[in-house]
Structures are given as structure tokens and as C-alpha cells.
Amino acid sequence: MRDIEARFQLERPGFTLDVDLRLPGRGVSALFGVSGSGKTTLLRCIAGLERAARGRLVVDGEVWQDGSRWRPTHQRPIGYVFQEASLFPHLSVQANLRYGLRRSPGASDTPLTQAIELLGIGHLLARRPAQLSGGERQRVAIARALAVSPRVLLMDEPLSALDLRRRQEVLPYLDRLHDELAMPLLYVSHAPDEVARLADHLVVLEQGRVQAQGPLRETLSRLDLPIRLGEDASAIVDARVTEIDAAWHLVRVDFDGGHLWARDPGLVLGQRVRVRVLARDVSLALAPGTSSIQNVLPGVVDAVGDDEHPGLALVRVRVGDALLLSRLTRRSAAALQVAPGQALWVQVKSVALLE
Ligand SMILES: Nc1ncnc2c1ncn2[C@@H]1O[C@H](COP(=O)(O)OP(=O)(O)OP(=O)(O)O)[C@@H](O)[C@H]1O
User: Is residue 35 in contact with ligand 1, taking CB distance under 6 Å?
Assistant: First the structure.
């Protein structure tokens, strides 16, 4: 699967979308930005729902749109999942799933069967939408989008209408999509924790323009970006579970730069995990010290940048191959004489393990 090339300009009263994107042909690309930044508009352009959008769209080597060509929505092989599952209330889950297939006569049943398995909804097929939980409805909506064998799956904040428990229930299925789908998935979200967990590639939109785009880890560790992420500024580290301390309900994960201890969310030995480390949970010290913090790693300062408040600095520290961010007061940074190339100790107060 080749990259997606998406260039669009769209003028609306009080809002202009002007983007030039190259998205990987596989994996999850998160479109991230505050409300009104143009995320939904961008998805609609890709789906061919914004006739006024000028630009160029190439998916898997096929031109869907350029100066002279325009494929209407029904000729674009996409799956579209909205915030709320729009299922027909009078039809069973099975009939809802088959509904989308009517558009493509002769389509094989295999993708639908696979989607039912992937989303774990085989036992729900005879039910009506009113007999499903919000999370189950959303899983059905995702399966319906996959049943038509799309070349791209577009998801517009698929969890935002769900409460925390239902979100937790659906997230593992999104992980499965991430791991098992060979097609690209464009995932709109304004929730940094979802992005950190699911995305491989990140696009940050602000007022209709792209502020940053690139692989997730690199893009998150850009020093100009955390300002936009505020309290959610974080780094992602790829690690593996190497020890489980059942007595203290802790788990040890190892990565290239050392190891970290975290609360055990129920992991198994050897499991690969993404570790999310918030910049505000990372402090720096000249010596390992004797504080209550158990996660202390040797690192080297990579860069020092401004933060949103003049009293704060953001420091990027290399720990092995990983880059961590630390948010500290300018006064502390001055006291430690923090500067690129300096070796110091990184104290990590807490981390989140994202399976
Ligand atoms: N049909 C429309 N006609 C005119 N303007 C619109 C229309 N839909 C959205 N807009 C405007 O376009 C801009 C981008 O909206 P869009 O829905 O793409 O943002 P978003 O990032 O998806 O926001 P949210 O997270 O709230 O869904 C906003 O200023 C919005 O008010």
C-alpha cells in the first residue's frame, strides 16, 4: 500500500482549510487538534463530501481528485465511522451490516465475516441497535465500515460519545484494528491519550493548517509542539514487560535506555507495551539521590526549549534511544545549568502503560 497524498484548500466564511499531507499507506494516522481546527472537514474532503475543496488526493497510487478529475463519494472505497453509530433502529445488527453491501453487488462476504470476528460482535447479530450498549453499537458501526473492503478507514472521534467505561471496552478492538488491518486508518481525535495509544503517525491541525506531521514519537518530542499540548505534553517509549512484582502490584518494563516500574494493569511477561511519559512527571537531577522516586535513569540533554509559561522550560533528554520530555521551572533549569550535551539523571514519577 502506497502513501496517501492529500492536498486541499477549502474556503468557508471565517475558516480556511489549507493542508498538504503525506500519510503512510498502513497503520494509524491521528488527526489531532482542538475543536474547530478542521479535522472533520479534512476527513470530509478525503471522502469526497466537500465538492468545493480544491487540491489533489492520491490513494494507493490512484488519483481520486486533482485539477481535472473528481471521483464522487460513492466511487471512493472508504469506510467512514462517525462519533455516533448511525444504525437503522428497525433493522437487526446483521441487516445493518449487510445494508452497506447492497451498494456493491457481487461483493464477497469474506470481509464482513472477518470484520464480525475482528470486532467480536458475532453474538450480537440478531439484536436491534436499541438492545446494544453504546460501545457495542460503535463496534457494529466499525464492522459495517469494514464490510465494504475499503482502501482507507476514516474514523471521526469514534469514542467521544462514550463514557469512560465504554471507551475502555472499545479501545482493545481499536488496538486490534491497528495490529491487523493492512489498510491505512485516519483517526480524528482531540484526546491525547487515545493518540498516544493508537497512532503511528501524527498530524496536528490548528486553524485549518498543519502545524506538525510525522511519525508519532518524533513529532511528540518536537519542542515546539508540547506548548500546544499543554498539560498533555508527553513522550512515547517502546518497551517490554520483563518482571511482574505481584506483591506490590508493579510491573517492570525494559527499553533501550533502562527500565521503569509502573502499576500493573494486568500485563503478561514478554508483552510489548507503549509507555507514555508525561513531561510534567519527569524531573532532572545532577545525582541519582534518595527520593521516593524509583524510576531514575541516566540521560543526556538533547535540547532545551520554551514552554507556554515564561516561568517554565521544556527539556528533551535522550535516554538510550528514547527521547523523554521534562517540564521544569526556569529557575530549576538555571540552578542545574541545563544545557545540550549535559549528562544528568532523569527521575520519572509515574508512567502510563498503553497495551
Ligand atoms: N457545513 C459547514 N459550513 C460552514 N462552516 C462549517 C461547516 N462545518 C464546519 N464549519 C466550520 O469549519 C471549521 C472547521 O470545522 P471542523 O468541524 O472541521 O473542525 P473539527 O476540528 O473537526 O472540530 P470538532 O473537534 O469540534 O469536530 C469550524 O470553524 C466550523 O465552524
Answer: yes
Question: Cβ distance 288 to 296 under 8 Å?
Answer: yes
Distance from the alpha carbon of residue 273 to the mean position of ligand 1, in angstroms: 35
Q: In what order do the strands lie in the sheet with 62-65?
A: 62-65, 54-59, 4-12, 15-23, 209-215, 201-206, 27-32, 184-189, 152-156, 78-81
Residue 208 CA: nearest ligand 1 atom is 14
CATH of domain 4-228: 3.40.50.300
Ligand 1 atom nearest to 37, measured from its CA: 21
- The pTM for the full model equals 0.88
Domain range annotation of the chain: 4-228, 234-354
* Cα 49 to ligand 1 centre (Å): 13
Choose among 206, 241, 225, 257: nearest CA to 42: 206
Predicted-complex ipTM score: 0.92
- Residue in the structure block whose three cell numbers are 503517525: 201
Fill in the DSSP letter of residue 170: H
Comparing C-alpha atoms, which of 98, 102, 143, 137 is closest to residue 119? 143
AA letter at 302: D
Residue having the nearest C-alpha atom to atom 13 of ligand 1 = 36
Question: Average pLDDT per run of 10 along the chain, which is 355 residues long?
Answer: 92 95 95 92 96 93 92 93 90 91 69 91 95 93 91 94 88 89 92 90 94 91 72 90 94 94 91 92 86 86 90 94 94 94 93 80
Pick the CATH number of 234-354 from 2.40.10.220, 3.30.1460.30, 2.40.50.100, 3.40.640.10: 2.40.50.100
